[in-house]
Amino acid sequence: MLSANSRRWFPMIAWRSVKESSMQEYEQQVKLKFKALSAFYDLFDIPFHLNRRGNPRLALAAKIPNQPLRILDVCIGTANSAITVSQANDQNEIAGIDLSPDMIFLAETKIRKRSIRKISIRQMDAARMSYRDGEFDVVMVSFGLHELDHALMMGVLQEMSRVLKESGRLYIIDYEQETGLIKKIILSIHLKIFEPSHMPQFLQYNWNEILQKVGLQVTSRDRYLFSKLISAVKNSA
Length: 237
Description:
By secondary structure, the protein is α/β, with parallel strands linked by helices. The chain has a single domain, classed as 3-Layer(aba) Sandwich (Rossmann fold), CATH 3.40.50.150. The chain has helices at about 5-10, 25-35, 45-50, 55-65, 80-90, 100-115, 150-160, 180-195, 200, 205-210, and strands at about 70-75, 95-100, 120-125, 135-140, 165-175, 215-225, 225-235. It has a 7-stranded mixed sheet with strand order 3-2-1-4-5-7-6. β4, α7 and β5 form a beta-alpha-beta unit. α4 (about 55-65) packs across α5. Residues about 1-20 have low confidence and may be disordered.
């Protein structure tokens, strides 16, 4: 539970628009926010553990075939999605990237404790990846895109498309609006405390149009608890 001091402090580290700051300042904001959040970040997944049918990470793992696929997890965080996929699909090889060294430390600790051998993590800027074109069969991102303003998000999506093979699959897990009153209130409080000020706009994005702009075609959009899972395929050239 956040203390009163914590609640006052979190808005101070909330995002300024990238348009108002340099990329270096933006990266510092990312690291600062997730340094503060890393110690209790996994608490945000408690609702998913309590409601398996509403868990988008389990749904993601079920969509990915248990085949020798190379997968990139962008903004891997504490590796919740990567671990879920790896435990379900032991033939997948997952490379994860994140800007936050604190999140990476926690992710690597969890991976070692579970003796998972097919997840590796690097500190890397998702907007400037060092991977080759078409290097991955699958690219996924979980609760990462909403952190970015629209322009930067498009740059990250363009990079994700670039490193994805032709006809490869992209999966996005992120927040979705709720319909029930209690869930709407819970989600609203969470978004106001922890998430950037552009969340109302993010929740209204047209993902068909957004992904078409980076060469991807939406194949499905499924609702889960407080979240959605968007599946897309890379169009052949």
